[in-house]
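User: Good morning. I'm curious how iron/sulfur cluster would be positioned relative to this chain. Could you predict the structure with it bound?
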Amino acid sequence: MTSPNSLEPFSPTLDRSALRPDCGNCFALCCTAFGFTRSADFSVDKPAGSPCHNLASDFSCTIHDSLRPRGFRGCTVFDCFGAGQNVSQGLFAGKSWIEDPDSRSDMFAAFAAARQLHEMLWYLVEAQTRTFDPDASRRGAKLRNTIEQAVGGELSDLLALGLQDLHSQVRSLLIEVSEEVRASYLAVGDDHLDAALEPGADLMGQNFRSRRLCGANLRGAYLIATDLRSSDLSGVDLLGADFRDARLDEADLSKALYLTQPQLNAAKGNHATSLPAFLEMPSHWQNG
Ligand code: SF4
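Assistant: Good morning! Here's the predicted structure, ligand included:
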């Protein structure tokens, strides 16, 4: 058994490949099942359950290369955590909602549920990867097994699944692992942390440039347009934090906790931003 003193987490390498979008094997479920409202993220209204007017018949996007300039920034932020291909090719065996229009409502409902479940799987993998506690890792594995069975089982079971109880169990474990991880960063005291750095904090537009924020709990915090350039976010709990237009140039997020691709996609950064190996630099960062 790996001990905490070995400085290795209990489950150091867990595969996340099934939790990455594979749009080529998806029936553009995010472009049909979900609705959106005209805003800074979308230039038009679209009701849920109807195809976007930019969607081609082969499920590709006709404006893929110019989504941001065309007012569809929200599309570049969204991530299904691999639910799209799972529903399209697994639950519906490769038969699209165009081929079988009667399947539309079930397919879209399954996608909505599977997307939440895949996101939970992503966070559980992260918790298992970061914890040194074998019991927490075991409970994470058990929850993952329950969720994997739900998304890989019968459609009727998935549609009847109560997500609230699962959400609550996953959340408890994520919080427990967060406390463990953050405590290790606060071992030398939390004097470096501002009292305002708390879960759900409104830090919109504030300046934390070049600050050491290690071990802070920013779960659900509003970091919209917050200046985090050159800051160190190692061991910071970022579960559900709102990163829209946050400035991340030269920041160190390589050991941040519960960071996701949609959060990065919503933020601004550059080549010098340090990211975890399992996340990608958004293309709009590369283009400046
Ligand atoms: S603009 Fe393109 S990516 Fe966005 S919802 Fe429409 S088809 Fe999908």
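The chain has two domains: 17-183, 191-288. The mean pLDDT is 92.
Let me know if you'd like a different ligand tried.
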